[in-house]
Design a protein that fits this description.
alpha+beta, about 15% strand
Length: about 475
């Protein structure tokens, strides 16, 4: 009865000797544990300890998945009564707790206290293992999972586990396909609010993160950090199989697939598979025909934001310069490929014959010589080709197009190599010398067959053999 009276009149006769805070009855004993650090209530499943039995009960629901507190307006369920009360304020819009310094308002007193520490800089919660400090106990608890490896939030569909409940909620949307965050300007939807916020910067043109070395600006802080590594040369991501290092974690993941050969991302329309989700998304745009990214200067449209950015450089004249020969390139990727000409680096190796290449695209092209794959098919005669360049040259035999013109006599050719051969008839140049005879042919193919005596090219009318084949 006495306790009940104190609740009504607001009397708090019990004072903490360490911080002078006052309490009613047994609440003082619970509070004193915050000073002593004593945690007497332990979870039987993960051995985590708590100061209060109610905290232990709330925690145990994480393991059981029980959410007994349900919102009457939207039926969303919660582990604790406090979380439900905080949630209900999202419907009412009520924010009764106001910051005295900046007038910002909050739904809960705990959120206000956390916010006030951004003004004071106070971080009273310290990690015992690494001494890192935090402004809230919840942030410290979440941080401790990095050391313990604890991932208490499990996906019921695929059994993947997460350190944070927010990470689990985001992951669950990959199963449900839910994208609750919509851009008001273009109606594009996102799984995460942070992704929406970053996307909106495209419309605002905002790039708040600036590189101190080159003043380049970025929409995302993570993009700035990755960019800074291009200056420092830091490559923190290492492949465990071949020890190759990378600036970006995404580059490492893509590289690791070259070892496994895995292509887990499948197009639902044509069943083509890809090694990364980004390649799949780019491919899917080819089906949809969507070109939502428009250049403000020339109104040209693109299917991907990175293609638009690349195009915009043609207007700005941005070029990346080689330090050794001062040759300039529009794209940093082209510069990196060019620099391998100086260094001799050939990081891409064929697993079948160990031949190495400076570009991954050249390796893929080479691998077709082993697999026999000819992915480029002529729609007019069904002839197939290994290389896109050979395919384009062949198409000109149907169209009659001859875009390569001799500067001396204006004769035109369907292939640049044919033009080079022809130009030697004007210059008299014969660059290929036969080691068996004094004769110096104009073409390498001629050189290869003269010494062998072979005449591989036969006239269909007269069955006469010839050393080499040429076209008009």
């Amino acid at each position: 009865l006495q306790k009940q009276k104190r609740i009504h009149i607001g009397e708090k006769p019990y004072e903490c000797k360490q911080c002078i805070k006052t309490f009613s009855s047994s609440h003082l004993r619970v509070h004193e544990r915050t000073h002593s650090g004593m945690k007497t209530y332990e979870c039987k499943q993960c051995s985590k300890a708590f100061r209060q039995p109610s905290q232990l009960q709330d925690h145990e629901r994480i393991h059981s998945g029980e959410k007994p507190y349900e919102c009457k307006q939207c039926s969303k369920a919660f582990f604790t009564c406090r979380h439900l009360r905080d949630h209900e304020k999202t419907h009412s819009g009520e924010k009764p707790y106001g910051c005295k310094q900046c007038s910002k308002t909050f739904r809960s007193s705990s959120h206000l206290r956390q916010h006030e520490r951004t003004h004071s800089g106070e971080k009273p919660y310290e990690c015992i293992q690494c001494s890192k400090t935090f402004s809230s106990s919840s942030s410290l608890q979440v941080h401790k999972r990095i050391h313990s490896g604890e991932k208490p939030y499990g996906c019921k569909q695929c059994n993947k586990t997460f350190r944070f409940s927010s990470s689990l909620r985001q992951h669950e949307r990959t199963h449900s396909g839910e994208k609750p965050y919509e851009c008001k300007q273009c109606s594009k939807t996102f799984r995460q609010y942070s992704s929406l916020w970053e996307h909106e910067r495209i419309h605002r043109g905002e790039k708040p993160y600036v590189c101190k070395q080159c003043n380049k600006t970025f929409r995302q802080h993570s993009s700035l950090r990755e960019h800074e590594r291009t200056h420092s040369g830091e490559k923190p991501y290492e492949c465990k199989q071949c020890s190759k290092t990378f600036i970006y974690s995404s580059s490492l993941r893509k590289h690791e697939i070259t070892h496994s050969g895995e292509k887990p991302y499948e197009c639902k329309q044509c069943s083509k598979t890809f090694s990364s989700s980004s390649y799949l998304r780019k491919h899917e745009i080819a089906h949809s025909g969507d070109k939502s990214y428009e250049c403000k200067q020339c109104s040209k449209t693109f299917s991907q934001s990175n293609l638009l950015r690349t195009h915009e450089r043609t207007h700005r004249g941005v070029k990346h310069e080689c330090r050794q020969c001062h040759k300039a390139f529009r794209f940093s990727s082209t510069l990196r490929t060019h620099e391998r000409m100086h260094s001799g680096e050939k990081p891409y190796e064929c697993k079948q014959c160990s031949k190495a290449f400076s570009q991954f695209s050249n390796l893929r092209t080479h691998e077709r010589t082993h697999s026999g794959e000819k992915p480029y098919k002529c729609t007019q005669c069904n002839k197939t080709f290994r290389f896109s360049s050979s395919f384009r040259t062949h198409e000109r035999s149907h169209s009659g197009e001859k875009p390569y013109e001799c500067t001396q006599c204006n004769k035109t050719f369907s292939c640049s190599s044919y033009r080079r051969r022809h130009e030697r008839t004007h210059s008299g140049e014969k660059p290929y010398e036969c080691k068996q005879s004094i004769k110096t042919p104009e073409y390498p193919s001629t050189l290869q067959v003269y010494g062998s005596g072979e005449k591989p090219y036969e006239c269909e009318q007269y069955s006469k053999g010839f050393h080499y084949f040429t076209t008009n």
